[in-house]
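note to self — DONT lose this again. spent like an hour looking for the file last time. sequence + predicted structure for the chain T wanted, 98 res
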Amino acid sequence: MTSISHIVLVSWKSGKAIRAEELVRPAIRGFVGTIPGVLAVVEGHSSSPEGLEDDYDYGFIVTFATAQARDAYLNDPSHRPVADAIGAAAQRIVVFDI
């Protein structure tokens, strides 16, 4: 089976970044070992010298063992508060799975 990389990019609403990241960053890092099928998590701000972030402030990648693990994560109790916090504080979100 092929692993799935779940890529999320977030552009925060004005004044929402600090509080939102205080909530979501530790929770996202905690997905490994908490949510079945999560193999790895990478999260943070862009370090690209290209400057092509298109105003996205924050991003993370969750690597899943299988597509089924990714699908189950969407309703996992550890994921829901993170998704809700991002949704409430984000101006724009891109989710791209490969």
